[in-house]
Amino acid sequence: MANTYIQIYIQFVFAVQGRQNLIHSSKRELLQQYISGILKNSNQKLLAIYANPDHIHLLIGFNSLNFKIPDLIRDIKSNSSRFINDQNWFEGKFNWQEGYGAFSYSKSQIDKVINYINNQEEHHKKKSFREEYLDLLNKFEIQYDEKYLFEFYNE
After folding, report:
1. How would DSSP label each residue in 77-137?
2. Alpha-carbon distances of 102 from 71, 99, 109, rounded to whole Å
3. What is the pLDDT of residues 79-118, one digit of tens each?
4. DSSP β-bridge partners for residue 59
């Protein structure tokens, strides 16, 4: 569409099914590269990614009207699950949990969010995923029902 310009920054967070620690550090970079490829093929700009053992953070810069967030996240989750399963990273079947968190940011916040995502390993030495996720929901004033949150186990 002529004279239409868009730049939206969104951090996505989603978890491994059963919150198992299935993304081994030796495979993290490979998974991140694979997801980067999915986003590149979707013409979206990946600004930061970090695959924790049991959840993932993505910061994406959208610049097109031709995307639907649920479709993009569905594609990322289904294709990355298929990739992990095809690579036989472990016995059993890998899946992501249903749902995700999506949090928008202004241009002035981007460097801080990138730093936050890139330092996930250090961050989680101090704060559990549950604490982190609930902090995000509360910071963005998102009303939620506990029964529809990710599965959190004795963190």
Report:
1. HHHHHHHHHHTT-SSS---BPS--EEEEE-GGGHHHHHHHHHTHHHHTTTS-HHHHHHHHH
2. 13, 10, 15
3. 999 999 999 998 889 999 999 999 999 999 999 999 999 9
4. 11, 48
Q: Which pair of tokens denotes residue 65?
A: 């009207």
Asked if 81 and 22 touch (Cβ cutoff 8 Å), the reply is no
- Its pTM stands at 0.91
Q: Is the dihedral of CA 112, 99, 18, 87 positive or negative?
A: negative
* The two three-digit tokens of residue 48, written as one number: 């930061």
Would you call 76 helix, strand, or coil by DSSP? helix
- Contact present, 9 and 104 (Cβ < 8 Å): yes
Residues whose CB falls within 8 Å of the CB of residue 124, separated by 6 or more in sequence, listed in order = 52, 132
State both tokens at 118: 């890139």
At residue 45, what are phi and psi to the nearest 5 degrees? -100, 115
Rounded Cα distance, 99 and 92, in Å: 21
pLDDT at 7: 87
Angstrom distances, CA of residue 65 to CA of 19, 69, 73? 33, 11, 16
